[in-house]
Amino acid sequence: MSTDTAVPARKVPVRPAGYGVVRIGARARFLLHRRSALVSLGLAALLAALCVAYLCVGESFVAPTEVVKVVLGQPSPDELVVGTLRLPRMVVGLLVGLAFGVAGALIQTVARNPLASPDIIGVSQGAGALTVGAMTFGVTSYTVLPYLSVLGGILAAVLVYVFAWRGGLHATRFVLIGIGFAVALRSVTTLFLTKGDYLVAQQAQIWMTGSLNGRGWNEAAPIGWTLLVLLPAVLWAARAQRTVSMDDDTATALGVRLGRVRLGLVALGVVLASVATGTAGPVDFVALLAPQIARRMTRTAQIPLLSSALLGAVVVVLGDLLARRLFSPTELPVGVLTAAVGAPYLIWLIIRGHGGRSGGNA
Amino acid sequence: MKTTGPGTATDTVTSRLTARGLTLAYEDRTVVHELDLAVPDGRVTVIVGPNACGKSTTLRALGRLLKPAGGAVLLDGTELSRIPTRKIAQAVGLLPQTPVAPEAITVSDLVARGRQPHQHWWQQWSDADERAVTEAMERTDVTALAERSVDELSGGQRQRVWIAMALAQDTDLLLLDEPTTYLDIAHQVEVLDLVRKLAAPAADGTRGRTVVTVLHDLNQAARYADHLVAMKAGRIVAEGRPEDVVTAGLVREVFGLEAVIVPDPVTGSPLVVPGAPWKPSAPSPRKAS
């Protein structure tokens, strides 16, 4: 223990390790985690490269220079292939990936559990149950179904939240009840599938694996607007994460209205996940994988939102690129690929015994 | 530890934090019954009592972690429930019994989070933040650990880091829930010495911090407290200066233990020595190794 008579001259100011202070104007100051910033830049560059590759590769190869021309709106002979067929589908994949990445990060933060993600705790299953249910009852319009799946996802999340609430939100109970609901809703979906018409079942099956096939500007617009409108909320969430990642008592002692902040974070995550599911179906494991990989890259104490979002987009765009080309001319749904990578990862997470931090002095 | 600093006549002591008719319950089990307490400003108040007497529960209520079932906790005369939680956080710091740090967080990052109640989203790191964090880490002697991960620290170091975080919050009042649990005796003394230093008046005569802490060890409580509160079964049995409160009668009443009270050979504070010597109940057939 240092005595108070220590030499006062050599006072080195302490800043949070790894952070830089960014000054904007006279008063505004932001803490910037240097490594996270670098990781985000790297991921953005990787994503840009993947996007160009995505637009180049296909039935016919298009030169990158032509691709850039089309994206910039200049006349090009490849206008149809790139601008009409590949670009809209890629944009949908990009937005879906961003949304899943952020959604997973937020829900994992609140649950303090890497297993918690919208496709594990029932959001995707809720969306699936309602969508497939509607299909069996004859709703086939692709302008209605996405909204139904958003509704289904949110309803499932509300149910899980209500059942997990007992004078407060207990993280482990939230995850377990979510898993329970996920199983129950999956069996409801199966019930609809067996009751329904054969053709409907086939259509539903494709939707349920998560596919970008046939998605275009009509699907890109709603999710794009949703992301834009929710951007301020996401910025708020990034700041709120700092205290929510502590234990309840400490966070409350620091003046955080924990109940409201958590509800806000979960609600934001659920809306994003539901909209993404409504757009492309449940692209499994993206929301689970992206935040965990991003965190290992940035080595931050909380899950980095921007890096998670970018990584989500990288996974979906790369996944769909491979899904299109791997067994060409047969196209796989992108969800098959993400599941092929994600499922072993999930098993590894469980084997490592990383099912959440329950203890204090671990 | 008889601190008789400038102007500490016991009858003029003020109290920012008080409890009035405080009743606390978990579900329908009442743990604390109509408790009245005035926490003396600028002093170290220690709450002691047997297990499950409601001492930690009382501390949690003083720090608004537990809503009263009856009565109220008042800060500067206003009920805590009427003050925005962020405002409370600017006046009252609290360290729970087993705080949990986010995984892989660095020491300086954790301590910096103590500044939360003073920050805004557009002002995440002011000069005041930097000063408070630097000073808190110096006082707790964790500056050298700034870049280390909290996960890899020893128990004693970790506890000092948590105290640093609470100090960085820069509050007048500091509530510590059993800060010596899980620490060996040397680290216990280290933490308690630090607590005393926090409450000591500054060189320019300004009042030190007000500390309320729950301790398990009656002797440590008697040694470090200015104001000792003894609780039993959810009620205060006695309170006052340790030398007035800690008597053989009180120890018997509160802990049900026959004890002899002698002056602590180092500080002169009351020292509790269990009165009945241990006797082998029957001659053991086994030989001692």
TrEMBL record, chain A:
* Membrane topology label: Multi-pass membrane protein
Question: Keyword Membrane, does the record have it?
Answer: yes
Tell me a Gene Ontology molecular-function term this record carries: transmembrane transporter activity
CDD domains with a match to the protein in the record: TM_ABC_iron-siderophores_like (cd06550)
Where on the tree of life does the source sit, at the highest rank?
Bacteria
- Database matches in InterPro entries: ABC_BtuC-like, ABC_transptr_permease_BtuC
UniProt KW keywords: Cell membrane, Membrane, Transmembrane, Transmembrane helix, Transport
Q: Where in the cell is it found?
A: Cell membrane
Stated family: Belongs to the binding-protein-dependent transport system permease family. FecCD subfamily.
UniProt protein name: Iron ABC transporter permease
Specify the species.
Streptomyces halstedii
What are the top taxonomic ranks of the organism?
Answer: Bacteria, Bacillati, Actinomycetota, Actinomycetes, Kitasatosporales
